Amino acid sequence: MQVTEEDGGRLNAFAKEPRMEVIDVKSSRSSSSQLLIVVGGVLVVALVAVTVVIS
């Protein structure tokens, strides 16, 4: 952790940042994540439909 001294003798500590990773576009949208998005959308639509039917 890097520590610097500010005006007035105060110490300021900076955390060590993690390295950045570049994510490929193909790997970010795998078939399982797309399936999860579709199932979540269907679930939301179904819950809205049930709410409309009940009220």
Could you characterize the architecture of this molecule?
- The chain is an alpha+beta fold and 55 residues long.
- The protein has 2 helices and 2 strands.
- A two-stranded antiparallel ribbon has the order 1-2.
- A hairpin with a 5-residue loop joins strand 1 and strand 2.
- The model has no long low-confidence stretch (mean pLDDT 86).
Topology:
Elements: E1 2-5, E2 11-14, H1 25-28, H2 31-54
Antiparallel strand pairs: 1-2
Computed CA radius of gyration, to the nearest angstrom: 24 Å
Give the amount of beta strand, in percent. Answer: 5-15%
Task: Show unreliable segments.
Answer: none
Q: What would the principal axes of the Cα set say about the shape? A: elongated
Q: How many beta-strand segments?
A: 2
- Structural class given helices, strands, pairing? alpha+beta
Question: Into which percent range does the helicity of residues fall?
Answer: 40-55%
Query: How is the largest sheet built, in terms of strand order?
Result: 1-2
Largest sheet: 2 strands, antiparallel
Helix segment count?
2
Mean pLDDT: 86
Query: How far from one another are the termini?
Result: 58 Å
The H-and-E topology, N to C, reads as EEHH
Structure summarized in a few sentences:
This protein is of the alpha+beta class and 55 residues long.
